[in-house]
Recover the amino acids of this structure.
């Protein structure tokens, strides 16, 4: 699969390596231009290339968004219209406190900046170090560490889930961009949790049963 990556920091750079190792083609970009990425791309090998931000958006069947959340209005919205765009960002201020989103979610705010994009929330729940080291492609899916996938476009979520599985994690459908995004965004109950796919599915089932008032469901407890 062709994957464009906008942002080459900790998360963007880590995703580039994981995806190349899983035999995907990657176009990596940074606001400072492709020349700043030549060394990084050379180390990644022939499946990687350094491009402009616009070219990364055009290249990818899936485009990873891995810039600071506060810079979302700088994304090339016109080039991402109709594209599967993956929100791997979290709403941190420069001092690492969280923006107050009121009743909104971080991905809903990204969606406002990217009208027409097929937005999926994923790859945002683990620090780069854990993302780089916790994948286990030879482990049964339910025993792998979970990465949550939220969105309103089922086909787009399926494509992103395929990438999650390819890099050695368990893709878990967390629900809609609003409800699932709220679970997995920074400050949410499943953000930063090292938990297996089987355990996350159990948590989500319990939460749904409690929400519906199912008999015997009891109070749902997030890990």
């Amino acid at each position: 699969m062709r994957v464009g990556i906008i942002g080459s920091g900790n998360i963007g750079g880590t995703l580039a390596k994981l995806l190349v190792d899983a035999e995907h083609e990657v176009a990596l970009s940074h606001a400072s231009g492709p020349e700043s990425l030549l060394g990084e791309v050379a180390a990644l090998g022939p499946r990687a290339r350094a491009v402009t931000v616009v070219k990364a958006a055009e290249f990818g069947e899936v485009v990873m968004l891995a810039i600071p959340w506060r810079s979302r209005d700088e994304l090339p919205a016109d080039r991402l219209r109709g594209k599967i765009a993956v929100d791997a960002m979290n709403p941190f201020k420069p001092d690492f406190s969280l923006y107050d989103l009121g009743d909104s979610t971080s991905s809903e705010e990204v969606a406002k900046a990217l009208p027409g994009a097929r937005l999926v929330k994923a790859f945002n729940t683990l620090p780069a170090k854990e993302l780089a080291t916790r994948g286990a492609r030879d482990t049964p899916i339910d025993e792998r560490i979970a990465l949550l996938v939220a969105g309103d476009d089922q086909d787009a979520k399926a494509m992103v889930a395929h990438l999650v599985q390819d890099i050695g994690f368990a893709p878990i459908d967390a629900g809609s961009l609003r409800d699932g995004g709220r679970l997995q965004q920074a400050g949410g109950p499943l953000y930063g949790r090292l938990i297996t796919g089987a355990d996350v599915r159990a948590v989500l089932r319990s939460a749904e049963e409690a929400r519906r008032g199912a008999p015997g469901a009891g109070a749902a407890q997030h890990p």
User: Anything to note?
Assistant: The longest strand covers residues 146-151. Confidence is low (pLDDT under 50) at residues 216-223. The chain has one domain: 2-194. The domain at 2-194 is CATH 3.40.50.720 (Rossmann fold).
